[in-house]
Amino acid sequence: MLTLADLAQLLVFMLPAYFANAAPVLFRTGRSKTPMDMKMRFYDSRRVLGEGKTWVGFFTGVVTGTAVGYATWALGMLRIYPTMEQHLLVAFLLSLGTMTGDVVGSFLKRRLAMKKGRPLFLMDQLSFYVAAILFVLPWRPQALDFAMFVALGAVTALVHYYANVIAYKAGLKKVPW
Ligand code: CTP
Ligand code: MG
Questions:
Q1: In 27-145, where does DSSP find H-type helix?
Q2: The predicted structure's pLDDT at residue 16
């Protein structure tokens, strides 16, 4: 049975991923920093990843997400792992998965000839989510079965959508997605 308490626990579980994803925007890391693809082009002569993916942004995401994971342990918000080390490792992998999925999403967008920052419905909202879960699959919470994965994905897409609208209104982003 899919319960609200399970969903709440899973949202706390996912906080490192959400904060990792938001960190480059919150900390405005993208401004005149070396892009991850070193400006290289793929066989289709388009950029491999584009200017929107920087190393500083990538590592800012991983560090921020891991720190948020530490906070959820320290505040006792999530106690499903026996030790802090295990909890932190999962938070780190969620954050690493998030930033990797975000890069994969941009790679696919460039292959579809989409310019940096153009919206691609579901890819923008969910590539990070799917990758984050994949990275922690062996250590996922018990409540995270397939039905929950789908439900949490839907909630994640909504949160991502509205968070970006807010970031846009707050002047942090040039576009509301
Ligand atoms: N960012 C970054 N490094 C990353 C991820 C994000 O510097 N690894 C910063 C960039 O300034 C980027 C912004 O965060 O423009 C927003 O990220 P995102 O929406 O993922 O990138 P887009 O600019 O929309 O580019 P894309 O079309 O490739 O998704
Ligand atoms: Mg974007």
A1: 55-74, 84-111, 123-135
A2: 98
What pLDDT was estimated at residue 30?
66
Cβ 167 under 6 angstroms from ligand 1: no
Domain range for residue 53?
Answer: 4-169
Query: Which ligand is located closest to the Cα atom of residue 22?
Result: 1
Average pLDDT of span 94-108:
98
In-domain check, residue 162: yes
Residue pLDDT, tens place only, 42-87: 999 999 999 999 999 999 999 999 999 999 999 999 999 999 999 9
- For ligand 1, whether the C-beta of 58 sits within 6 Å is yes
Quick one: tokens of 166? 């807010």
Q: Residue 41, SS3?
A: strand
In a domain, 177, yes or no: no
Nearest CA to ligand 1 atom 15: 52
Q: Whole-angstrom distance between the N-terminal and C-terminal Cα of the chain?
A: 33
